[in-house]
Amino acid sequence: MSPKRTVATWTTAVLAAAALAGCADSQRDDDGGGEGGGSEDAGTFIFGAAGAPEMFDPYYATDGETFRITRQMFEGLLGIEPGSAEVVPELATEWTPNDEGTEWTFTLRDDVTFHDGEPFDAEAVCYNFERMFDQNEAGRTAGEYWGYVMGAYADDPENSLYQSCEATDEFEAVVSISRPTSGFPTMLTLESLSMQSPKAMEDGDANGIAAEGEGFSFPEYADNPVGTGPFVFGAYDEANGEITLERNDDYWGEAAKTSELVFRVIPDESTRRQELEAGSINGYDLPNPVDWAGLEDEGNSVEVRDPFNILYLGLNPEANPQLKDLKVRQAIYHALNRDQLVQTQLPEGAAVATQFMPDTVSGYNTSLEPFPYDPDEAKRLLAEAGAEGMTLEFAYPTEVSRPYMPDPEKIYEALRTDLEAVGIKVKVATASWNGGYLDNVSGEPGKYDAYILGWTGDYDAAYNFIGTFFGNLKDNDFGTDVMPWGKQLADDLQAADAIVDDDERAAAFEEINAQIMEEYLPGLPISHSPPALVVGPGVDGVIPSPLTAEEFDTVTVGGE
Amino acid sequence: MLRFVVRRLLQMCMVVVVLSMLVFVWLRSLPGGPVSAILGERQTPQRRAALEAALGLDQPLPVQYLKFMERAIQGNFGVSTKVLPGEDALDVFLSRLPATIELSLLALFLAITLGIPLGYLAARRQGSVTDTTAVIFSLVGVAVPVFFTAFLLKYFFAVEWNLLPVSGRQTTGLDATRVTGMFVLDGVLTREWDAAWDAVKHLILPAVALATIPFAVIFRITRASVLDVLDEDYVRTAEAKGLTAQVIRGRHVLRNAMLPVVTTVGLQVGGLLAGAVLTETVFSYRGVGDALATAFREKDYPVLQVLILAAAVIYVLVNLLVDIAYAVIDPRIRTR
């Protein structure tokens, strides 16, 4: 290109750029923007999220990243005491059952309005229940949690726990259920069952979900949610992976400390840590336990939650009939050095499990001792059962980290070494979490002889742990339907769940826990791990929740 | 020329149809799927069956494929299940594309503006310190994994020296106006200069990380190609004719040496898409690569299908452009 042509080209380019520069208008607010540097603004708390939210209607949501955001905007009739799993009043101040435990009268707060200015009253409560109950076909599949706790929808009322809701007064609603259960009303603490504005749901066609191809298309409402909580939905900047919530200045309780709450989607864990170090976010969830000390040294605070989970070694007698013998299952349990596992592979504060639920859940049996590590006894029991040198196809998941198992492979290796030490031949099996592992574990029948898996409780109820595992005879991962006691255990669990009196119910679950561990041993509870979250210097007021249900309205940034 | 372009475009359509079938079958033959990604620990055979039925995943594969094609012909590629649930998969791709274009253009710009001059210089001064240093540098570029380069870049430039942002595309609270989705261009168009500058700062580290491999390849090809051409008779003839060094370099050496380089640049565009998956993930840069990584992890079939097919189309189109560029550079090809 000649020098003349070069000059001509560049002149054209500059002129074009100058012309382009006038072709779109800035839409900035006069007072907004231009400053940037979010963390320097003391009024904003910026949290690094590991994934993007699904959408913002908690009813259809299924994952923790979505719930973390909706939790700041929505409230349920019942709440959870910050820092514990204890049920406390939220939008309802009182709730009383009839003698049978099938009719619950909720007395509501009379000073609450939704973010759109609509009043919160008994009519709104019943509108919400009916909305959740009466779903189209797509909604019945997508409304994951309602189906899980209520069993069915309006098209199948016989199998539904929920029956009806009646507004008996402006601020009094009566909810009828088909049978008494420990899950009700505790389940109303679930984020999915939060109260939403009837008018906004109506205007945004909240139930207009549709199955389209292989996914669900959500109605407009799911992008414009309206609740009663301390924060109001601001915007979802998908291109930049940022969700902004603004303080609700008309909140019925104490207003949030920060004026803005921002969630930044940062999928990579080491990037989240670097963002915290650079000061561009104020906190993130689930820091790798090996980083805890380093993060503290840098002036951050690692907030450790009380464990509300269980890691277990699942056994499947359908895949390996030798596992039907109690002695074999006990031998495997004796072979595991869980003390060492907890000390070397799990974060500080983790504990060896004595049963299938953590000690904070009512129904926990305090008299149960940890099953002792005794390789000799394990060998003896195997010999007695004629299972010396047995082969066990034992699996672990890859591409996943869960609060109860930060590093599945390391946990697995420790367990495998223990099993091999007593002469069990381990056939290693593995699959990625979403790439077949869960399908193989919970298939009918499950594919593996043994596997590691766990559970984080949804709310404070014994049945949410052991009922989930063994309460449904046909549909569980432990193959209890081929065991002689499987049906008895499922029946006992359902009977205990139906006891209305709290103390009586707790006693029944304690007894079942003892039976499970001493007589049945359908699987082997391993440990409880405390998941943590980390916040940067200058951040105060984060109250770690065992249910990982932190509310950020109490958080201050930069000593505000 | 026109016939050639039309033929190539028809070939591309064939490629897309065959590939769509392969991708469709391949994705569904992988273990796991969107259902286990959605249900997690909560999955039971019953719940899985219900969700599979609702999403049509219980149908035989050919039926699923025909339904997919029927919708695809109408421009409906299904909705995302996890990347941006409920959103049309094609829209997910289109909304993420500007970010990746912006990033790839800068990476390619860096790779070309450094790779070609350095390659030329290294060839002219073969065996010198410049040559050796540049060769070592390019080897490191190819050998070191992108995520490690990215980690180091972030550690020094963002965390230790605080010169550039760690990740993302824009600083929180900037309130910039969006026009095209390419944040630098948007800043220029709306005269929000701070936003444009902020976007540039966010682009630098990922672009450098992404440019390392194309830079190394372009550099080495240029160097080798220039070395070859320098030995050609016509260069010696040109020198003997007494042409100025500038004319010899520009008209005879560089122009002839550029042919393999242009092919390489074309191929590198495909490589950039692959590199973008890693780079965008470690820099939380919301582009097509990040969407692809998330879609694969969460088994978001509709998004995966669109992204893979779109990548193929882009690759074919870029190669077509390369062939046209060939013709422009080399008159012999034009006249054939």
From TrEMBL, chain A:
It comes from the Bacteria. The keyword Transport applies. Belongs to the bacterial solute-binding protein 5 family. This is ABC transporter substrate-binding protein. Keywords: Signal, Transport. Residues 86-475 form the Solute-binding protein family domain. Transmembrane segments: none annotated. Residues 1-21 form the signal peptide.
Automatic annotation (TrEMBL), chain B:
It is a multi-pass membrane protein. Its main location: membrane. Keywords: Cell membrane, Membrane, Transmembrane, Transmembrane helix, Transport. InterPro entries: BPD_transp_1_N (IPR045621), MetI-like (IPR000515), MetI-like_sf (IPR035906). It comes from the Bacteria. The keyword Transmembrane applies. The chain crosses the membrane at residues 9-27, 103-123, 135-157, 203-221, 257-283, 303-329. PROSITE patterns: ABC_TM1 (PS50928). The keyword Protein transport does not apply. SUPFAM superfamilies: MetI-like (SSF161098). It is found in: Cell membrane. Residues 97-326 form the ABC transmembrane type-1 domain. Belongs to the binding-protein-dependent transport system permease family. This is ABC transporter permease. It comes from Nocardioides astragali. The lineage of its organism: Bacteria, Bacillati, Actinomycetota, Actinomycetes, Propionibacteriales.
